[in-house]
Each structure stands twice: as C-alpha cells, then as structure tokens.
C-alpha cells in the first residue's frame, strides 16, 4: 500500500502545472481611454471673477470681460468655495497665441485672493487658477 501511495504522489508531482506567468499591469489604462492623456476637470463657474476694480476685501467691484491696452485686470478668488486660510493659489495667465504671460503664487489670507496683471497684448486671454496644484477656476477676457 505504501508503494501505491508513493507512486500516486510521484505521478501527481509530474503533472503539476508551473506558476502563472505574470501579466503586465497598465497603470495608465484610465488615461489611455481618454485618447490624448488629458483628464477632464470640472470647475465651479463662480470660483473666480474678472474685473477692472476690487473693493476693500478683494471682491470684484467692477466686473468686466473686455479691457484696453495698459489697463489693470483683476482676478478675484473667493475663499468660501472649499478653500482654507494658508492654502496656496497659483494663477497662470495665457494669451491666445499660446504663450504664458504671467505666473503668480499667493497664499490665502482673507475672504478673497486677488491676482492682477496689466494688459499689454491685444487678444483673448485665459487664466487658470490652481489650489495646491489642482485647477479650481478658469477665467476668460479680451484685451482690445
């Protein structure tokens, strides 16, 4: 009986399958599904306002979307949209020609954080506001 059991164990050992071959892991599968590698971002339309003047707290006092060459443009970001005192905000000002015109960084220290730029080149502009490295607002205006 011992010989039979030993023979069965040896036969079973010979027919054993090897370990599974590891498969490649694609950590970029979600990005690849979008085609161009860019992930969509949804921002609150009230997360930043554009204007030609701000009040004492930093809120836009005079809203505007068109400016003249040499005029100061203000972007005001209210703290109330999930932002906290001490968080870092960044503003990236882009002209329609695709070139960056200004990058600015500020720490939230009140009810509004204000970024400003003096318009020098005519055309449309886009401003992206990031909080701690993540986009939270987009603002658009035109310089005539």
Q: How would you characterize this protein structure?
A:
- The protein has about 140 residues and is mainly beta.
- Helices cover about 10% and strands about 40% of the residues.
- It has two helices and nine strands, in the order ααβββββββββ.
- A hairpin with a 5-residue loop joins strand 1 (about 50-55) and strand 2.
Helix vs. strand class: mainly beta
Q: Given the structure, what is the number of helices?
A: 2
Return the average pLDDT rounded to an integer. Answer: 83
Major beta sheet, specifics? 5 strands, mixed
This entry's quaternary arrangement is single chain
List segments where confidence is low: pLDDT < 50 over at least 5 consecutive residues. Answer: none
Side by side, the strands of the main sheet go: 3-9-8-5-6
- In terms of DSSP E residues, the strand content is 35-45%
- Provide the helix percentage: 10-25%
Number of strands: 9
From N to C, what is the helix and strand string? HHEEEEEEEEE
Integer-rounded radius of gyration: 29 Å
Write down the overall geometry: elongated
